[in-house]
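Annex B, item 7. Sequence and structure tokens for protein A, then protein B.
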Amino acid sequence: MISKFTSIQGKSREYYTLLLSLMGLAGVGILTFFYIEINGHGVTGMNNQVVWGLPHIFAISLLVMASGALNLASMATVFAHNHYKQFRRFSAFLAIALLVGGLMVLVLDLGRPDRMLLTMVHMNFKSMFTWNVFLYSGFVLLCFFYLWAMMSNEKYVKLSGSAAFAGRVILTTGTGSIFGVIHAREVFHSAITAPTFIAVSLTSGTAICALLLVYTYRKTQRQLDDKLIYGLRNMLLFFTLMVFYLMAVEKFTKGYSPSFYEVETWLLTGPWAWLYWGGIVLIGLLTPLFILSHKTWGKDINGIMVASVAAIVGEVSYVAHTLLAGQTYPFNPFPGYSVSSTFQDGAVGSYVPAMPELLLGLGGVGVAGMIYLLGIKFFRLLPKKAEAPESWLPWSP
């Protein structure tokens, strides 16, 4: 069933144009870092209340997507869906590319990345950020171990694939817990935040895999069995329903408690409500659900591509809404205590992203795209002909 893995030729004008464009984005991102480093974070839209802005939205979106991108490999190695075995290398490599892109943005926006080693020497193990340093670096190492096993030593594939699967679940839980464990931020604080991040990672990771597989196979004139994309369609439909369910449970739980009336009303009608209703609900949830379950569009590859783009927009909107709404809602630094100060007590924060933030974030996207393009040119990541078993018939709307 699985034909020989081959790298692409990568000699066409279209390939080099795309590669140079992504390198340009990465270069602009690095130049923007020096601009912010020289002039200070005052040139960004971030302030004392909103310290995580547009660069962090790009970074966290890429990190969450990286975790979900590994799902395709896990389906074969951990859950024995052998028709996706042919995409394991692609899936693991894409996870590394997205993670590196996200981490680049995160590191370059720290303010003083030259002092990053100091934070590694003086670890604060009560902080989720400290644990995430280990989770991110550990996940990259596990993906490399998994790739090495697939390419050189098949007997370690089960072990490395299972470890990478566990690593990605822990990684996304850690990312979601950065927000979910903060008691002082009423928008963030929730036991369902981490599971919702996992579900969102599965939708966006599946969506980016479907988009890149179809695009890569079309542009390289390789054969890709449509049934494999229909299988991804079904995964995306299920994962989107899971996100819908988790968000509905969270809203119901918080809406049932009088102590959350004010914050929930603010989230649904406040200054960032457009991001919630437009980006998450309309584009990220309802649009993919409608297209993927439609009798005609759900069976059309282009329709599945549109639904995949909508799912990615929904993921970015979810991360943006979590960060921006969470930080601009009036801050309560000591929950359960009556304290007051002369600094922004009860004040709603404001935030308008600046151009340097956008360019820095796009730099991370450029790095991730560049790594992927170079990867499929220099490594044998994809089979020349991707086929599904004739007896396998994925569910169809």
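Protein B:
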Amino acid sequence: MHPSWIDYAVLIIYAVFVLGIGFALKRSVKNADDFFSSGRRIPGWIAGLAFLSANLGALEVMGMAANGAKYGLLTNHFYWVGAIPAMVFVGIFMMPFYYGSKARSVPEYLKLRFDEKTRGLNAISFAAMTVLASGINMYAMALVFQLLLGWSIHASILVSAVVVLAYTILGGLTSSIYNEVLQFFLIVFGFAPLVMLGLKDVGGWEGLVARMPDGFAHAWQGLGSASSNPMGIEWLGMAMGLGFVLSFGYWCTDFLVVQRAMAAQDMNAARNTPLIAAVPKMLFPFLVITPGLIAIALTLHPLRGAAPLLTQLPGGGYDYNMALPMLLQHYYPSGMLGLGLTALLASFMSGMAGNVTAFNTVWTYDIYQAYIKKDGSDAHYLWMGRAATFAGILISVGAAYIAMNFKNIMDYLQLLFSFFNAPLFATFLLGMFWKRTTGHGAFWGLVVGTLTAMGHYVLLKMGALHYPSDMAANFYAAIYAFGFCLGSTVLISLFTSPRPDKELAGLVYSLTPKHDATAIAWYRRPALLGGVVLCLTVALNFVFK
């Protein structure tokens, strides 16, 4: 199936629409606060959908489909274990510190809690991670355009970068947020028909299970031993590596998603932002992992007269990254193919714009203003934010070529998280809940944790360490990075002087007045919403155990 003029028309209409949002919102950007923080005027439900969509990049739809094809229903743990509990935690316990401290970014919170050098280290590592991660979105989108439109990888990267640059540089964070809400609905309506068509073809859920390899149809069975499940991880590594360190490290400290909640209109809206996002998040495995299951089923047991869906690679395994594009090509007729491509384009843009808006904020406030030009005017920093947007996208283009070296883009991203997010979570955990933590302890703990993860990767590549899968290696790298950062921070803090209690009010849990929710309608209280979300997640784990 090749795209027709109808498919191109759908794509062009979408591109014009998102650019129109950028132009329309350009007039509302009057100062740096409007550009970087949306003036803190975003309603809670819009911030919630943007919070989710910022994470719905190409990684989410293509990477999770690839993981579904490679690991089966174990991939659901990236949602039910590796996302929902952490989203509830950040909404109930951590947003009061982020929002209440009036910090403009996560690195700036670290400056308020610890010191300047800890902020600088986090700002630099976060800036590096965001542009590397946004390269994944570019690469994934280029793969799709190459397969379905026949474009070259290089041209696809260039065109997609220009579109995101245009609407982000015009409307700043507000433009990005409203486009992310639009992209959320496009992703849902673009992929839901694909799941239904695929399930119908393989004979429903029972037919799908019958075509998949052993162990692919259960989320928990087989986790007693690393050798008895396709991911090569046992329950302890899953719970600690993914469910605790990587998950909490990402959702609680990554400014990419936290920035959406910090743009909410008040404290209660900010706390509810990740909780609202958690509701659709828990259902997304049905939309993005099921296509991967269908792809591997149609590869191992093709329909009568059809060739295997996925291509076998010379080094072993299949080209899992192509699971979703191949299904789109297989099932969608003209018009529908345009809708599917638009949904993929939307996911790409939401992921990349999220990374770029986080990058331009951290660069401008936490690196440029902090170390290069401290006394610039508001107009100057607004100009610098737009210049950083351009530079961020340019660097992302280079990062896209790095992502080409990984057979599974999700493995690549988890590797980045183990380097940067895992040790940072240990720093935040201690900083927010142990007032004895010092700036020296936080800084050197971060250094030790990051070097531990990098050293683990070097030993792995030298053959000194062995794991059943790349994903298992990433989980354990995160555990080691978290553990070494935690231990180093505690040890150094015990031998250095802490700040007085009066300087830590609003920054440490035990020294911060608790948010009074009694004046808020019961159905808008974060604790209740968080409890409902957790109960539903436990039920999903039980049903698909």
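Comment on protein B: The longest helix spans residues 153-202.
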